[in-house]
Amino acid sequence: MFKNTLAFQTTDTYARRLALLLQPAHRPLLSQGLQGIEKEGLRVRRDGRLEATPHPASLGSALMNNQLTTDYSEALLEIITPAEHATDVMLEQLDILHRYVYESIGDELLWNTSMPCILPPEEQIPIAQYGTSNIGRLKHVYRRGLALRYGKSMQCIAGIHYNFSLHEDIFLLLQQQDRVNISPRQYQSDTYLALIRNFYRSSWLLMLLFGASPALSRNFIRGRPHRLDTFDEDTLFLPYATSLRMSDLVGYQNTSGQSVVRADFNNLEGYLRTLANAVSQPYPPYEQFGTKHNGEWLQINTNVLQIENELYSMIRPKRVTQAGERPLHALASRGVQYIEVRLLDIDPFEAIGISSNTTRFLEAYLLYCALDESPLFYEAEHAEASNNFALVVTQARRPGLELSRNGRPVFLQDWAVELLEKIELAAALLDVQEGGDRYCAALAVQRAKIQDFSLTPSARILENMHTTGYSFIRFSLEQSKQHASAMRARPLPRELHTYYSELAVRSLQQQAEIERAEIVDNFDEFVRAYHAYTPD
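Structure (tokenized):
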């Protein structure tokens, strides 16, 4: 079936590229790309309330431990796998790290849904601390700025970030086939940006298949106006929603500072220019706060973005940074190395928040996005894609929902079936390389969801809540308890626990060494130097 389909579409760019990578000499490169997961999760008490204790010392330094750190809050743990070639190895690493965490946090739980647990008053949500070094203080002040701009509750929303790269020799092969006379670095960056454009065109599909936040606690809203329905006295929801986390009802899309920024994904220079302008352009509402109060830092600056990572984005082009290097500088000097997908909700039915079927489908989907034709992205199409995404996160499971494609209405299910047919070619190619059928099997699981929306995570969550009579908080707490018990029932081998314990101790020592080396308090100069950078 795979070869016949290719033969039928030999003039298509996507088919030509697939055929190129199907050749036995090139196929092994498909297994040499890298992938990794960053999974956020709130530490909570057994009653489902936010844990107020500092980041546990048993997990090491949040500043220096590159596998166990914090995101916004002391209570918002971030578990980061190393970059791995194989999906199975990556998920095993994620499982091992979860088990180590559960062995290290006493009787606390990890909240295994994206929307937060019962939160205390805003002023009692603890902002993450990273020590007294300049870079540690910068990370803390940045988070204080986020609290001013968006509120602390917003920063307690959790998700999963999926990092993905292709082996660099694949770009060389594609460049030879395309006969494009530019530097290999530019071609690779251009191809990753093409992937991102295709992602924006079709990312609504991921929300339909994997969105898992159709409900939230009324506690999260804190009396603000909203357009959500009432599920029970404690829970708000939308009946056809997939991901309220990614909606403008909850997320960053409608915040004033973010709304003036539109990243340019047509070329790397345009993307860098957009972000450089945003981190240097003053924004009057933030100027009202100032940067200091009574000598105490409130935010890094009063610009549209304090730093480039503040920009809300469902996907980012990335490059591994060197010590002290800003992401913009890394991209400008060495080009795009990988992409970071940031829109995934935590799957409450999975102990590590994501399944192997999800990761294998994502790998096939992103390969499709990288290999398919990707015209430049202009205002009208960007607006169309944004509207489609907004519809899907709030209404995807509504019968007969129509989206817009090239200005014309199309039924969501029809378009989804078309996309899965294309993605299946990438899945088949990955299966040929791996020597099995696990990628196509993962795709079949997603096809079943298209045929029956009740199989989607969002529908399963609401059905579970209806059947049990649980509120969102009760449902999430029960899922989190079950996963915690299952994890703690599989303790790590002694040598593995010792390995991660030693990493934790070493990271604390590294933080102490950095702090001892910075005897003079020159934080103000450090901030000025950090902010002064703009790409060449």
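Residues 3-11 have pLDDT under 50 and may be disordered. The chain is about 45% helix and 10% strand.
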